[in-house]
Amino acid sequence: FLSFVRSRCVEVFAANQEDVASRMNSKKVVLNQVGIRCRFCAHIPHRERSGRSSSFPSSISRIYQSLTMMLRDHFTKCHMMPGEMKERYLCLKANASQGATDSKKYWVTSAHALGLVDSGKGIRFKLPTCGHHRACHE
C-alpha cells in the first residue's frame, strides 16, 4: 500500500511563490521548502482542491504524519483522482494492516533516498555535491 501511494498518488515538490502566497493565512511556508502533494489535483488552483491535498512537514520525521492525514482526509474525496486509481487505492487501503499505513521508517527512508534533508526552514532538497565542475569554482 505504501509503495503504491508513494509511487502513484503523491509527489514531492519545492514551494514556489504561489505556494507561499496560498499558505499566508495558515502554516507559514517559505520559498523552496519541500512539500508533498496529491499528484492528481496538483495542477488545479489550490482553492479548488479537496482538503489536505498538500502538506509541508517541518521535518523528514513528520512526513508520515502528513501522509497519514492525506490518506485519511484527501484521497477518498479527491475529485481529480481517476476512478480506476481510486478503486485500486481503496482496495489496497482496505487490505493494509495498520502498521503498513503508519510506517514512519518507510517514509524517512524514502525521503533520504530522494535526497531530502532537514533544515532550519523545513525540508529541502539536498544540494548536489560539487566535484570538479568549473562552474562551481567561478
Please explain how this structure is put together.
This protein has helices at 2-9, 17-22, 63-73, 83-95, 98-101, 104-113, 134-137, and strands at 10-14, 34-38, 54-55, 116-119, 122-125. It is globular. The relative contact order is 0.18. The chain has 138 residues and is an alpha+beta fold. It has 7 helices and 5 strands. The N and C termini lie far apart (47 Å).
Are there runs of 5+ residues with pLDDT below 50, and where? 129-138
Overall structural class, as computed from helix and strand content, comes to alpha+beta
Radius of gyration: 16 Å
Q: What is the 3D shape?
A: globular
Count of DSSP strands: 5
Number of helices: 7
Between the first and last Cα atoms, what is the distance in angstroms?
Answer: 47 Å
Element string (H = helix, E = strand): HEHEEHHHHEEH
In spatial order, strands of the major sheet run 1-2-3
What is the arithmetic mean of pLDDT?
86
Q: Main β-sheet: number of strands, strand sense, barrel status?
A: 3 strands, antiparallel
Strand content: 5-15%
Features:
single chain, 138 residues, alpha+beta, 3-stranded antiparallel beta sheet, two-stranded antiparallel ribbon, 7 helices, 5 strands, 14% strand, disordered C terminus
